[in-house]
Write a structure and sequence with these properties.
The complex is a heterodimer of chains A (about 110) and B (about 110). Chain A is mainly β. Chain A has strands at about 5, 10-15, 20-25, 30-35, 45-50, 55-60, 60-65, 70-75, 85-95, 100-105, 105-110. Helix content of chain A is about 0%, strand content about 55%. Chain A is globular, with a radius of gyration of 14 Å. Chain B is an all-beta fold. In chain B, the strands form two sheets. In chain B, strands 2, 4, 5, 6, 9, 10 and 11 form a seven-stranded mixed beta sheet that branches. In chain B, strands 1-3-8-7 form a four-stranded antiparallel beta sheet, with no helix packed on it. Classes of the chains: A mainly beta (about 110), B mainly beta (about 110).
Chain lengths: ~110, ~110
Amino acid sequence: GQQVMQIPQYQHVQEGEDFTTYCNSSTTLSNIQWYKQRPGGHPVFLIQLVKSGEVKKQKRLTFQFGEAKKNSSLHITATQTTDVGTYFCAGKSRVTNAGKSTFGDGTTLTVKP
Amino acid sequence: KAGVTQTPRYLIKTRGQQVTLSCSPISGHRSVSWYQQTPGQGLQFLFEYFSETQRNKGNFPGRFSGRQFSNSRSEMNVSTLELGDSALYLCASRGGTGDGNTIYFGEGSWLTVV
């Protein structure tokens, strides 16, 4: 079945440093979504990418979808303590019916002030 | 509009007991999915319901079951609880292509099995 892998599993940065998490799918995706889960909270939708090579920005966050639609990345510029949490990607396979998305295991970001 | 509502938020059960968790999706959403999240683990997909039918199922034993009602509310049940079932159980509703297939999560039900 479809597998979605995220790296790294953990990332610890100094406040102000940049951060990137990568998401790789074993199958071609129709779309990919990114979620953020704060400690003790629930995952919250950040963004969806649909087009090959798509790049979207949300303030300091930059999301990319690979040309082959099998990988994606989330880059945070100049991290802040408010960025702390676990970032999940979720990919919907082009060949999977019924719309099921597969989540990666997440990247947990900690930021040292 | 109101978000995804899960009840109860916290509960403690004893090994061997059973538990039922409830989820009310966002109004108008017909798809409800359940996930298990344990410390250090990602989101493990349990099952998805759409219009009262189970559409997808993850790799969990038969002790885990669910159902969806005509008003789209969903319940999941875990029988013969084991210590390893202690986890955060998340319900998510999805509106469909008109909403970009965005998944909206509830705050979850924290289950502790002792």
